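input
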Amino acid sequence: MAAASPYGPSSGSPYGPPSGAPYGPGPGAPSGPPPGPPVRAPRDVGAVASVLGTPTRATIPLNKLAPEAALRRLELTIVRRLEGYLHGDHLGLLPGPGSEANDARLYIAGEDDVRKIDWAVTARTTVPYVRDTVSDRELEVWGLLDVTPSMNWGTEGVTKRDLGIAAIATIGFLSQKMGDRFGGYVLKPDQLRRLPARSGRSALYGLLRTMLTEPFVPDHATGPMTLANAIEQMSRAQRRRGLRVVVSDFLTPGDHELDPNVPPDWERAVRRLAVRNQVLAIEVVDRREVEFPNVGDMLIRDPETDFERYVNTADPDARSRMDAASAAQRERIRISLRRAGVGHIQLRTDSDWVADIARFVLAYRRVASMLHAPPQGVAR
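output
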């Protein structure tokens, strides 16, 4: 189940009359304010309103996405060798001061090293040419953010979508060194938007601001783009080795399978992405997806399909069955990501995401080299 609305027919909604109810006085009603105490304006309920409809604004301001003071002593371990064009602080794919060939240029006597002469170009042109090399050890990070309708809601002060942006911000600050670049992809049902990779903290803040202001996808929006397709496109478009971050709830519309031996449709794409890159999968979960509350009749609805059903959550047996099914669903996701050989961290909307990522990073240093060991015959 991708979303839950606790406001069934017996509980009523705290946000005004139900859909279709008339607003304002009816025929024959007395004019003027209604009798009784004055009506107060509804308070700002934040992310909880996303349970009833598509949000209209972000629930986390830009300056609170990733507290830099809390991250200064942490550093995300990069164990896969990298390719690149700029000087950086990470281990290169091949030994030497620089192995990426740059453009050929005319040989300047007394200034250029004769060992850098490009003999193939020199033979074709009959004029001495040299080909410079550039450093290949900077890190290029690409983050894929899922903003499909199942990410639009939350019950604990922040939506899953905004928590995913906060996770990308945190990983961006933890992995950034001299010359490193950070780019992004935004997954919608109808398209995959690319945000170019740039270096520097101001560029990272610009990318985060773009993600925060991205228009919300309405419920039941359809399109050909899926998480598996988005990962495949990112893998084909970004051939240079580096760090890839996939942020999603990893829920596939219409997929009700709970058997962990049956792989989700995105597992193959994640496995292929991990062949050349170090991959970190960030699973975003809301508390009420795994712990159903006791609120009486509750409408369970999927914002990406037409599934809707009322469930009596006052029945402890019904709650236990729903909790067990949700736990099995999350366990299947965990096992699939483990099979794909990627790092996995689960963030919840009711917990401190900075502390969760910090604990993950500290433990990640010990297991990263084993977890991201490349397949046999593939260079690290």
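quick obs: Residues 100-134 form one domain.
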